[in-house]
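Design a sequence for this backbone.
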């Protein structure tokens, strides 16, 4: 039985992103949330513990961001359920048998701050680091995902997305292959095209966002009361 509707497939094709609820059972998602707290060695009920970042994490204090590059916590990986993988297959038309759960993910946890709210720099994945020399074509990842493991609220550190920009930015890339051998150069020329206005994607624990390559998005400051927990993964489809 399908887990994705024709309308959702069409939205994914047209807008380049889709935020799903209900693919991950509530109890599975809450176990993932608890595993994230454990990984961070923090007490969800004691905000004083939230500023003590463990040595095994990557701390980016100007962004109030705490990451783990290769998180393999079983209760977090368990959130990539059969329904999640089936949804990805149905969205992309790729063979379900060739889509596998990740063995590790990148955690991206955004902690509350007292600074004025803003979203961060708009970008597409793979295009932000000049020195990685990520080839524009063939592009490595077909789809990216962000799994949310906390209940979000507006301006609570959520993801911003620019609908339709997967087409705009890909169009820029193919317009001049000689100028754009690497994704960094395409991303750097974003000002040459009209990317429109962003939408704030407010997710709850257990929601998962899929977005296509070249899709422009941004993180944002968390001026809410609770940390925003998420895991990113790239899918080589
Ligand atoms: Fe990104």
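Sequence:
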């Amino acid at each position: 039985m399908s887990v994705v509707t024709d309308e959702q497939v069409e939205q994914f094709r047209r807008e380049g992103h889709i935020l799903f609820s209900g693919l991950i059972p509530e109890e599975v998602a809450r176990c993932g949330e608890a595993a994230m707290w454990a990984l961070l060695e923090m007490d969800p009920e004691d905000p004083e513990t939230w500023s003590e970042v463990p040595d095994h994490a990557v701390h980016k204090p100007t962004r109030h961001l705490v990451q783990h590059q290769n998180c393999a916590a079983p209760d977090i990986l368990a959130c990539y359920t059969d329904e999640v993988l089936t949804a990805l297959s149905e969205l992309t038309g790729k063979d379900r048998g060739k889509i596998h759960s990740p063995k590790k993910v990148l955690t991206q946890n955004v902690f509350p701050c007292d600074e004025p709210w803003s979203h961060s720099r708009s970008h597409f994945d793979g295009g932000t680091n000049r020195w990685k020399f990520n080839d524009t074509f063939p592009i490595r990842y077909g789809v990216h995902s962000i799994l949310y493991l906390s209940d979000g609220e507006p301006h609570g550190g959520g993801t911003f997305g620019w609908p339709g920009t997967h087409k705009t930015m890909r169009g820029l890339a193919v317009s001049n292959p000689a100028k754009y051998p690497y994704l960094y150069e395409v991303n750097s020329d974003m000002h040459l095209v009209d990317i429109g206005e962003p939408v704030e994607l407010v997710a709850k624990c257990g929601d998962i966002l899929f977005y296509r390559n070249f899709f422009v998005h941004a993180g944002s400051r968390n001026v809410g009361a609770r940390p925003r927990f998420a895991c990113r993964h790239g899918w080589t489809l």
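The pocket of fe (ii) ion is lined by residues 123, 125, 217 (CB under 6 Å).
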